[in-house]
Amino acid sequence: MENDTATMTTQEVAARFNELASQEKWFEIQDELFADHVRSIEPSTAKYLHNAEGKAAVRKKGEDWVKLIEAFHGGHTTEPVIGGNFFAVGRVADITVKGIGRMKMDQVMLYEVQDGQIVLEQFFY
């Protein structure tokens, strides 16, 4: 039998991302859709989060961020907008962060897809 696991298109990756994001399954997104050599880029003005490279480092970055969140009061991720091998979503989250207090995060999250996997996530806020 031939290998029938065809490489997902950007549209298919974005659709699966959207399905998981709507359920707040962020680590499942990393496990399922991120390439081993994924890069995670924060704005140059970011105080609390830093860039990471490689699936394990990006996972640790996410886990470290989650540890700082004392309470999640609600959030929403928009439908993806696709252009070429990129897609972007808007993300709003109402959270309480240790040492900062309650805040509303409002950001654009950009993803680059190559060979059916996310190779870059970049945040704008």
UniProtKB/TrEMBL annotation:
<feature type="domain" description="SnoaL-like">
    <location>
        <begin position="8"/>
        <end position="125"/>
    </location>
</feature>
<dbReference type="InterPro" id="IPR032710">
    <property type="entry name" value="NTF2-like_dom_sf"/>
</dbReference>
<dbReference type="Pfam" id="PF20409">
    <property type="entry name" value="SnoaL_5"/>
</dbReference>
<protein>
    <recommendedName>
        <fullName>SnoaL-like domain-containing protein</fullName>
    </recommendedName>
</protein>
<dbReference type="InterPro" id="IPR046860">
    <property type="entry name" value="SnoaL_5"/>
</dbReference>
